[in-house]
Structures are given as structure tokens and as C-alpha cells.
Amino acid sequence: MTGQVRGVQLARLLGQWHALPGRRRSPDYAALAGTVRGLLADGRLPLGVRLPAERELAEALRISRTTVTAAYRQLRETGHLASRRGAGSWTMLPGNHRVASTGLWTPLDDREMLDLGVAALAAPPQLLSAARAATEDLPRYLSGAGYHPTGIIELREAVADAYTARGLPTSADQIMVTSGTQHALDLVLRLALAPGGTVLVESPTYPNALAALAGRRARITTHGLAADGGWEPDLLLGSLRQTRPKLAYLIPEFQNPTGHLMPASLRERVVAAAHAVGTDLIIDESFVDLSMDGTELPPPVATYDRHSRVISIGGMSKPYWGGLRIGWVRASAPQVQRLAAVRVGVDMASPVLDQLVAVHLLADAEAIVADRRVQLAVQRDALLGALAHRLPEWRVTVPRGGVTLWAELDGPVSSALARATEEVGVRLAPGPRFGLDGTLERFLRLPFTLPAADLVEAVGRIAAVRYDLDRAGRQRWREPAVIA
């Protein structure tokens, strides 16, 4: 059991659980149960958490206890709830589910799903040759134990050289190799954030960062991003000065999910404000390589750091391949050593063979990344064209890099739409996954990492479902099979 959710908390997560525009509603108990299932499916409601008592939830939702009782009964019948008399009810999922590539739970029979919940590309063709070359390099490491807590020197030097080429002089001693960018974030939080510490994040932001912060029991404050311009400088700097958080987690390059790019002037001011209030900045550079349309990148945020307040994290997942679990931290040399000391209680070191593969990919980075940018531009434009044709009421700001669109919908139906599109073979990441407490229902993240034809097909299915949400008719809910 991971904890308990109170009635008012669950009510906020449920949002508009029983009302879809222009439709005759299904029974309230079925709508309530279906929305809880949706929260479980997209990770906003954890597994193993105790739900509020029936009376408490009924009071929070201002509905009858009978409705909540019937919803809980249906959730038990479908395998989404386990109850014990006198002890309460805990969330679970049926045995015919598995962990998807997003880390969330999904039915076993959805292998043909068009998955728009994952913002990552398939592997580049150069990966195979890099893997073969890495196996030829491996023998010189086999005489040792294979533990390199900060990473093998070749990879640390390659990453340091990439930072230097961006105008930020960096030595190998300032680089720590990790098992992916999420692992890098987790280690930094273990080192720099005590349980209950305050962290400022953008809203919307990366869901797995929110999960990592929740794991540290952080107190999260947010800075809301404008749909068309991104960061509001005075509001962001004001949030830093007023809340004085221990950490701030920011994604300045093609922000996930909005695609915004932070200007150089604001980067400098953010670093200065963070130093003034004693805040350390975690700068996620996952998408920094994926600029498009000739966009010139501002200097790295750490360029303006003179007091070791900026810790940069990045990795191979977005420009190369998610299956290559290689990430890194760029910090001061003493901070890297402290991170290594924290790491040995977690996983000791990253795989040597994977690091050697990364070395060879980085050696060919110019060609690989150039191909990726062309591929992404084509797929982005295909997605934009399909949205303009099939869903012209949606508003989308064209990103100049990254891998995602942040779409403003024509109504607060993001979660309902995501649940409905599962029925037609499209998986979506609804807006509330990128915020706190059920907000952002008018938004949807749409990555353009699938082939163009798949993106056009997915938009066609989404448009059909969106049309159906506004038509009169009875909501179709999955009912448990009855065996007599």
C-alpha cells in the first residue's frame, strides 16, 4: 500500500466525471467507476492506494452514498478494487494487464495500438554498427570489475566535449553517467532534496518528474506556462523570490510537453534569482539536440552559473533511442563525487557495453541528429496538417524543436477523450497527467514520433471519437464478462 487518498483529493482528480457535453449520461455509478479506471490507467491514481470511505467520497462529490457504493462494487467486479471489511478498499488492476512502454498499466491485447502516449523515436539505423563496434572495444574492460560509478572515461569525455562545443567549457570530472535521464533526476533529488522540501516546477511539466518528486514527498509549487509564449519572466522570477524553493526543475529547451524554448535573457535572470534566494536549478536538457527550422539555440543555462547552482541532466533517449539507458549529470566536480557516493546505494554503475555503444553514437552525432531533425520535421508537419484538416477547432502552437505538440482542445474533455480513443486503438496522454490535481483538462500532448501515415490515421480516429463525444447517445462502458 502506498498511502491513502482523501475524499476531497479524489474529487479534484475526478474532475468532470459525470458530464460530457451534449450526451445522455450513463448511470452515475458507471460514469464514476469508469473515471476511476481512467485515473488508474494513466497513472494519476496509484496502485495500492486506499480510496476514501464511501460516505466520505459521497460528501466530497455531493452525491448519494448509494452511487458510490455501486461504483465501488463495479470496480471490484472488474478487478480494479480490493476491499476488506473494516479495513477499506485499495486500488489494483486486473491480471490481464501489463506494464506498457510508458510505465503505465495497459491491457495485454493492445499490441497494435497507435501509442501517442510515448514521446520517443525508434532506434536509428546507426545503432547496429555502433553496437558491433562497442563489442570490439569491450575486451579492454573485461580484466576489471566493471564498476564505474561516474561512468567510463571515454563517455564522460565525449559528453563533456559536447557541452564545450555548445559554449560551456566542461571537463570529464564534471560529468556523471547514469542509467537514463530519469535516473539522473532521481540521484540529484536524493542528494539535494530532503523529504518535504519545496520544489518549483513548470505547469504543465514532465509527468515522470512529478512522480519522482512525489517519491521524495516534495512540496510542489508551480509556474504556469502561457500557451503561446511559455514562461512569463516576472511571474517566474516572482515565484522564486516568494516561495524560495530548495530546488527548481525546468525544461528550457523545447519544454515537455509544450515545446517552448526559453530565451537567453530569461535564462540569465533565472540563474541570478536562484542564487539570490538559495535555490538550486535542475535543468533537463533531454530535447536540446532536436531543434528544427534552423532554430538557433540560446546558451546553456549553466553558462550563467558562477556559484554551482545549476545541475544539468540529459541523455540518449530522445535523439537516439530509449532502449539505450544512458543519461548524465553535468555539475561541479565535487557535486559529481557526492552523487557517486549516493549512487552506490542504488545501482553501483551503468553497463559498460551500453556506455561504449553511446560513445560510438556520439562520435557520429552530427549525421544521426541531422537525420532525426529532418524526420521529425516531416512528421510534425504531417501531424499539424491532419489536425488542421480534421480538428480545426483545436489550437496548437508550432514548436521549433522537440518531439511534441501541446494542443488546446475545444472543451475540457481530455481525459474522456483519452478513455474513448482506447476503444479505437489510439493511446493518448491527457493533459491532467502533466499537472497537479486534475487540472489541464482542455489540453492534450501529441508527440510526432510515429511515422507520418500513423499520425494521420491516429488523428482521423481521434476526430471521429471527438465527434461522438458530442453526439446524443449512450456512453459505452466496458462491462465485466458474465460466465454462467
Would you summarize the structure shown here?
By secondary structure, the protein is α/β, with parallel strands linked by helices. The protein has 15 helices and 19 strands.
Structure notes:
The structure is a single chain. With 484 residues, the protein is α/β, with parallel strands linked by helices. The protein is built from 15 helices and 19 strands. The chain has helices at 7-14, 28-41, 54-61, 65-77, 126-137, 153-165, 181-192, 207-215, 233-243, 264-277, 333-343, 352-363, 365-390, 414-422, 452-469; strands at residues 3-4, 49-50, 81-84, 88-91, 97-99, 105-107, 114-115, 175-178, 198-203, 219-224, 247-250, 280-284, 310-315, 327-330, 395-396, 404-408, 426-427, 429-430, 443-447. A seven-stranded mixed beta sheet has the order 8-14-13-12-11-9-10, with helices on both faces. The chain has a four-stranded antiparallel beta sheet with strand order 15-16-19-18. Strands 1-2 form a two-stranded parallel sheet. Helix 1 packs across helix 3 and helix 7 (181-192) runs parallel beside helix 8 (207-215). 44% of the residues are buried. The model is unreliable at 472-484 (pLDDT under 50).
